[in-house]
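Fig. S4 source data, part A: sequence.
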Amino acid sequence: MAAKKKSRKRIIKAVNLIYAILLISCVVGMIISGVKNNFGNTVTPEPKDIIWDYLREEGFSDYSIAGMIGCWTIESHCDPGTIEGDYLPDFPSREMIMKDLNNYCISYLFPYYKKNNLSINRDAYMSHGKYYPGIGVMQLTGPRAYNLIHYDRKNKTVDPHIHNKDWNSIELQLDFMLHYDRKEEFWESYKNIEPEPGETEEDTVKRAAEEFFSSYEMPGNHETRFLDPRQESAIQAYNEAIYPDYSE
């Protein structure tokens, strides 16, 4: 009887050891291969880190970058694979949505907004005879979503013969934004935001978020209820990036 108990204990120990080894292997594998965004693509390092590095390389000030990230945190949690409506209770798989974005808008997104008395401009979703929901970090809709999906990175143009299945790449989205989606004059002005006399760092970050929100994200819109959370997120993004020991 005692021998059986010892044998049983040895088996349990062996099973626990194997389980521990597998668990460690999984963790190490995740670290090495990177995390996956909500579209299923591997993202290493975190999207925010990629955004900081990319835009700094392009000459953007930290204040300008923080303003952008503040807006994108509210829009998409800075996840390049985000598709508008991922909060729907019956949200389909992204693979299914990408097969027919138009049908997704008609059958899922628009009915949800109507059911919840949320007013939207359907025309803003229309491009080339089809509806396009908000996609990516910037949640581009309609013509801008179409342009991103058909963006020719080499020639910095939109080509209907090109179809970017990897539109959810953060690098592709940033390249499209800087080199096609707005005139260079806008970016030259926005990228150089620095503190003005008497301005605190937080004031400058808030100004950058407001400028990006009203001039790029939602042109002409200054509604406080939309702007305030973006400015708060921008300040947090700035502090986390500039002050390593920062904790909210």
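Fig. S4 source data, part B ends here. Confidence is low (pLDDT under 50) at residues 18-44.
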